[in-house]
Backbone:
């Protein structure tokens, strides 16, 4: 698709620079060149964002698939034998 856009841009540029074409026609060809360049840029931006989104999604799946379950490591476990501290201003009741 990008190759076809490049070919159309080159053809429009050639027509815009041609001395055999009237000035009014050259203006139209020049305008067309600008529109085609803008459209090509828009296509490239959208393709880039879509490709980036796919790559991020694949990377996320790969990382989350390799990660172990969300459990704390052995050094961070809370043993049930320790009492839970209470604030000093409250009385146990």
Residues:
């Amino acid at each position: 698709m990008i190759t076809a856009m490049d070919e159309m841009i080159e053809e429009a540029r050639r027509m815009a620079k041609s001395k055999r074409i009237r000035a009014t026609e050259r203006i139209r060809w020049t305008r067309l060149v600008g529109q085609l360049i803008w459209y090509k840029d828009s296509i490239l931006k959208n393709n880039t964002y879509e490709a980036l989104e796919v790559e991020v999604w694949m990377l996320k799946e790969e990382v989350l698939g390799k990660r172990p379950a969300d459990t704390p490591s052995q050094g961070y476990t809370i043993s049930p034998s320790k009492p839970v501290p209470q604030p000093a201003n409250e009385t146990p009741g």
Summary: DSSP finds two helices and no strands in the chain. The helical segments are 2-17, 23-66. The chain has one domain: 2-67.
